Amino acid sequence: LNTMAMRVREWYSWHFPELKEHVKDNYLFAKCAAYIKDKSKLTEDMVPGITDIVMDEDAAMKIYKAAKTSMGMDISEPDLLNVTTFTERMISLATYRKQLYTYLEEKMSTVAP
Fold first, then answer.
1. Over the range 21-49, which residues count as b (16 or more CB within 10 Å of their CB) and which as e?
2. Are 31 and 45 in contact (CB under 8 A)?
3. pLDDT for 6-42, tens place per residue?
4. Tally of CB atoms within 10 A around 9
5. Whether the model pTM is above 0.90
6. Residue 79: CB partners within 8 Å, gap ≥ 6?
7. What is the rounded CA–CA span in Å between residue 100 and residue 103?
């Protein structure tokens, strides 16, 4: 999972390198990347969605402003599709890991309090 997170950061950073400066957590970075997708299509209407992900309105506005002035390269549709698919898989695995951890904690407290 950590290797996947590093790949998401690496690949998406070619398109939007400034995002990694604003979002340090790998899971939140992946969620932002999956939500934003193509930075050129990011609108101010999407800022509340970014706020929900990063849980900070100021950080969300900084991300929005960074996207508008980003030095990253444009991304083709096939590349964006591949990055998005990989990112969504990573998010899914991270979510599963959290659920599994919770399940194991509950089982262990029952079996070995």
1. ebbeebbebbbbbbebbebeebeeebbee
2. no
3. 999 999 999 999 999 999 999 999 999 999 999 999 9
4. 18
5. no
6. none
7. 5
